[in-house]
Amino acid sequence: MRAQLLATALATAAIFAPALALAGDAEWRRYVIASTGTSVDMPVSIFTVDAGPPEGGTGRRFFTDDRRADLTVQSVPNAQNDSPATFLAKMRPPAGIIYKRITSDFFVVSSNRKDRIWYNRCNRGNGTLDCVLINYPVSEKRQWDDVVTRISHTLRS
């Protein structure tokens, strides 16, 4: 009887628990913004809902089925050819950034807001900054680490 109750509890938890992001279990495809050539590996089995074009750039937004996480891939015009540091400063990022790395080729910023982690990486392109923006629950940070890392490291301008 005890084993049957445990099995029932585990089955019920599996039904109601949100699917966790696991990079090794995901189906990945290369997403390309044709007009700029920006591309990135994207876990299409995790981000299954096409949410249309992003605000302020060319590209696409995607959600998980339950909308608990989202991914935006976009190219943003950089007509003045600003460095990543200058471009980031002009965006006026919020105070309290937990992680920031800036080089001559890219910037990465990340922090927490309302129980969610937001992560932005932008690479310097040819007249653009090519970016991935990812938002996901703080409570799932460890499960998302490998997914975010792969997306970030495969962003190409």
Give the secondary structure arrangement, pairings included.
Elements (H helix, E strand, L loop, with lengths): L1 H15 L11 E5 L6 E5 L5 E4 L5 E6 L6 E8 L6 H8 L7 E4 L3 E8 L2 E9 L3 E10 L3 H14 L3
Antiparallel strand pairs: 1-2, 3-4, 4-5, 5-9, 6-7, 7-8, 8-9
Protein model, in words:
- The chain has helices at 2-16, 84-91, 141-154; strands spanning 28-32, 39-43, 49-52, 58-63, 70-77, 99-102, 106-113, 116-124, 128-137.
- Residues 1-18 have low confidence and may be disordered.
- It is globular, with a radius of gyration of 18 Å.
- By secondary structure, the protein is an alpha+beta fold.
- Strands 3-4-5-9-8-7-6 form a seven-stranded antiparallel β-sheet, sandwiched between helices.
- It has three helices and nine strands.
Features:
7-stranded antiparallel sheet; 157 residues; single chain; alpha+beta; disordered N terminus
Secondary-structure element pattern, one letter each: HEEEEEHEEEEH
> Mean pLDDT across all residues, rounded?
88
Radius of gyration: 18 Å
Q: Unreliable runs, pLDDT <50, ≥5 residues? A: 1-18
Distance between the termini: 58 Å
Q: What level of helicity do the residues show?
A: 10-25%
Spatial strand arrangement across the major sheet: 3-4-5-9-8-7-6
The largest pleated sheet is described as: 7 strands, antiparallel
Strand content: 35-45%
Q: Globular, elongated, flat, extended or rod-shaped: what is the shape?
A: globular
Structural category: alpha+beta
Summarize the structure.
This protein has 157 residues and is of the alpha+beta class.
